[in-house]
Amino acid sequence: MILTVTPNPSLDRTYEVPSLDRGEVVRATGERVDPGGKGVNVSRAVTAAGRRTVAVLPLGGPSGALVSELLDAQGIEVAPVPIAGVTRANIALAETDGVLTKINAPGPELTAAERESLLETVRGQSRGADWIACCGSLPRGLAPSWYAELVARAHAAGVRIALDTSGPALLRALRERPDVVKPNAEELAEAVGRPLATVGDAVKAAEELRELGARSVLASLGADGQLLVDDAGSWFGTARVDAVRSNVGAGDASLAGFLVAGGTGPEALAAAVAHGAAAVRLPGSVMPTPADLDPGAVTVTAQVPTDRVLKEPAT
Fold this sequence. Notes:
Elements: E1 2-5, E2 10-17, E3 30-36, H1 38-48, E4 53-59, H2 61-73, E5 77-82, E6 88-95, E7 100-103, H3 112-125, E8 131-135, H4 146-156, E9 160-164, H5 167-174, E10 180-181, H6 185-192, E11 196-198, H7 199-212, E12 217-220, E13 226-230, E14 233-239, H8 250-260, H9 265-280, E15 298-301, E16 309-314
């Protein structure tokens, strides 16, 4: 079982539009409403892969009730933490050329009691979990050290933990040696305090995160592929994608694929790449099923092309 923790979940509305013109009336050609938040997306992808998951998340107000209802309709077990605030609602505008514009609301502020209730719910639900995936931004009321405390508690309970966050929350949590961290290129550049122009730059940055405490680093490099750096070495994975429809949740699908495949080694990296590539071919934040995957389009190699210039440099 994979337990996911989403401290700042959302109700996500995605509109498909021909193009985005400021100041003009834009008519959508498609619309979706999905439960959102990075950990929620991981749970959705794990369920789509046929594995059991439980989603821990603070929920409040009508939008929180709808998030729970939508997850239940998808067969996902929810362990809600009731809060006085209202769960945020986000908007994504997906253009036909693949450009995505996201408007993310700040979310509610959690009280001290709600903060502790969230930790206790994770503790109670973690019994029997193979992995805990802690994902996304922290809402107001949770200090940057909150993820670090969660990692420490998970390890004390003997559970492996994967962390997908950024900024001070990531740097604080590294001290507790999370089993996997999953930054994208921008988050990786932010963590080491310098731009990344090549795959080699990304490898060096990942190695620095390991020196700071991460046991392994799964880095999403966008259209350039994905990188895994751990005790056994470094691997680079790519996949052929003919057309991108939406990249919403693609990184979350990748993390789910990685964990479902065991969470370690090149085979897990290949699964991560396959899930991410499948996700970008789907509308909105739809998570891929096994039928959507194309393992034959995936290449994983230990011969990391360190001199390759990134198509999307991270600044």
